[in-house]
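Record type: monomer structure entry
Structure origin: computed from sequence
Chain ID: A
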Amino acid sequence: MAPTDSVTSVAWSPKGTYISVGCSSGKVVVWDVAAVRVVKILEGHRARVGCIAWGSQLISSGARDRCILLQDVRAASPLVDKLVGHRNEVCGLKWSPDDQQLASGGNDNHLCVWQLGSGNPLHRFTDHQAAVKAIAWSPHKHGLLASGGGTADRCIRFWNTSNGAAISCMDTGSQVCNLAWSKNVNELVSTHGYSQNQIVVWKCPSMAKLATLTGHTMRVLYLAMSPDGQTIVTGAGDETLRF
């Protein structure tokens, strides 16, 4: 990274061997964590890389240039595909558990689902009324996708990506910043911004609230789950981490 560059996103590889760093310059720098060395610098974006998602074979990155790049870190020429479908910055990316579909959310309020190998979206969902940053695939039911909208939307929506059907919608009352499904039980956790700054654990599919966690004083922008699925950590605009 150049001294003038800044970090705009980070993501671990599935096995935790590598960490990828998205930069304001549009580069994605892949580090070998144990060796503390750069193994690959992925180029191709013309603006900041706001989101990164690893599949088992490919790394996907979404940027302010409205493009999604699919790249193979192992290849001499890593670029596999360039997906163009959003009209504004790509702010959310998640691979399906079987690695066959990629979900992308944008500041254009659209949620796209891409089938691996196809350059056009398999589905384009336009029901959200604000940016779609929060995306999560169910590990319990094939083709079940959840998405959350920003301040003007506040909704968590559920989709069947096998047939493109909208399943249900839940108004949470606050901007939805992140979504993550528990691997162990059929529960979903959401983090929020304006105006509650809360973290909610939901029972699926009923969407009954199991817990509401408060304490952050600004929007909860970041969410990560421990490998065993027992603990979550959140980071907020109040510059605190909470476990």
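Annotation 1: The chain has a mean pLDDT of 96.
Annotation 2: DSSP finds no helices and 23 strands in the chain.
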